[in-house]
Amino acid sequence: METLSNAALQVHKRLTEDFPYFAKHCLRILDKAGNLVPFELNRAQRYINERAEDQLRRTGRVRLIIPKARQGGVSTYVAGRFYHKNNRLNNRLTFILSHQAKTTDKLFDMAERYHFNCPDTLKPKAIVDNSRQLVLENGSEYAVGTAGSGDVGRGFTAHQLHLSEAAFYEKTDEIDTGLLQAVSDEPGTEVFVESTGNGVGNWFYRTCMDALKGIGDFECVFIPWFWMEEYRRPVPEDFVITPEEQEYKELYDLDDEQIYWRRKKIENLKSEWKFKQEYPANIDECFQTSGDPLINAEKLMQARHNKIPSNPDSPLIMGVDPKGSGKDDAGIVFRKGDVIPGYKLYKGEMDPMRFAGICMHLIDTMGVDMMFIDNGYGYQIASRMWEMGYKDKVRTVDFSESPIEDDKYLNKRAEMGMNYKYWVEEGNKSVPDTDEFYTDTMCIPRELETSNNKFKLESKEKIKEVYGRSPTLFDAAILTFAYPVRKQNGDSRIRFKKVDEAHKAKGPLKTLNRTRYKNQDKGKKEVSVWGY
């Protein structure tokens, strides 16, 4: 009996701590054919579970935002996870919110189905069970709501919050100040926000972008369509793959049955653009506002996956987009020939003199051959660097100045942007493999043509208006294409040492050195990404 008792205790412990195990043995879901089957997590659900458990271990809480393809089982996973918590723990309140009443009802019905089909020996009795509320005898309960009420979420405290199809909420002004505040920062609380894409400029898009940039508590988890095993169709005997499909297949490591499913789905939707939005292969496709960005998405994705060594004979160029007005970040992108090896983002307030010190330190330690900086907000930074002996390393660029090829481009920004486009689409290039870099590049619409047949780009102000943020990394990247640069001979660190010695007696450089090498100030954040 003692052995059985110990075994029973181990099973009880695993049922409490291991959600996939609990789901397989205690929960039932409806499959695509309408059959009630055990809930075994699919690839997407396993990945979300791993990310959730990892965040829980690191922070004590779960805050995930999930842009996804349609019908990938994300809502099924979240509903199952929250039922598991309500089943095994006392006094947990789960609140479910969706964009439509019928969707909210389906999510609530899913929770009731979990409870109804859970083994009697493993479920607490339901003491309230109606169309809007499920209360268990252990004190845990469900409540539901539909987006649209400005005060939804006020007046109660939730431990688990599920926001479904959040990109389609009509009223989002008070999500941050209302609904999300209903969930405390206590250990064990969880918030899952999930949705298919619905363009840009909405709360879901902005929160995803913040999460990708490390702003706020949310972490972003993207789920592509091809993770769903059922998204495939038998290939007919006369099937012939197109060159575009072959490239897509190789890019995402797909098989012919997945490619044929994609082909038929595009035919049904009558739009490849619509397919990308509903069944995205990468995070940018979730938020596309048109099917025609400046840079080809597949070519940029190839560059993300392509890891090639940089040519040692190529100059190292540093493009700098300094912090502008409002909430803009400061960004630095490095390019060496066919490779963009990494970038840096600086968030929060940034004193121009301090940023000048950061740039000089990077030039010295990395052996930068030339730095191009946006003249609009960067002239003061450049002036300080020139004063400190960097005249040969630093050049300002005015985005509205005349281009080198003034018969083709309206201004310098258009010329740099188009050169960046041609560079990526030429192939065999390498860029940082991050959603942050990818999305910042892909938010730029296709080039426009003026009445005098010159190319121009959409204005930064218009992009900020639509996307809610400035394309900092894109602007820093295109600055590396401002002017031709030759690799310089000699070691910049030796050159700097001479400048340092020459100015030591004057005082300012000593103070600058302290600023240059000290840690980030409190409240400021540096994001540094290097692919290899």
Overall spatial form:
globular
| Computed Rg | 27 Å
Would you count the extended β strands for me?
18
Unreliable residue stretches: 492-500, 502-523
Under CATH, the topology of the largest domain can be stated as Nucleotidyltransferase, domain 5
- Backbone structural class: alpha/beta
Binned, the helix content reads 40-55%
Helices and strands in order:
Layout: H1 2-17, H2 19-26, E1 28-30, E2 36-38, H3 43-59, E3 62-67, H4 74-88, E4 93-98, H5 101-117, E5 126-129, E6 133-136, E7 141-146, E8 160-164, H6 175-179, E9 190-195, H7 203-212, E10 219-220, H8 243-252, H9 256-269, H10 272-278, H11 283-286, H12 297-305, E11 316-321, E12 330-336, E13 339-347, H13 352-366, E14 370-374, H14 375-387, E15 394-397, H15 412-425, H16 435-442, E16 448-449, E17 455-456, H17 460-467, H18 472-479, H19 492-503, H20 508-517, E18 525-530
Parallel strand pairs: 3-9, 3-10, 4-7, 4-8, 8-9, 11-14, 14-15
Antiparallel strand pairs: 1-2, 5-6, 6-7, 11-12, 12-13, 13-18, 16-17
Helix pairs in contact: 4-5, 13-14, 13-20, 15-18
Q: Which features would summarize this protein structure in a list?
A:
single chain; alpha/beta; Rossmann fold; Nucleotidyltransferase, domain 5; 3 domains; eight-stranded mixed sheet; 18 strands
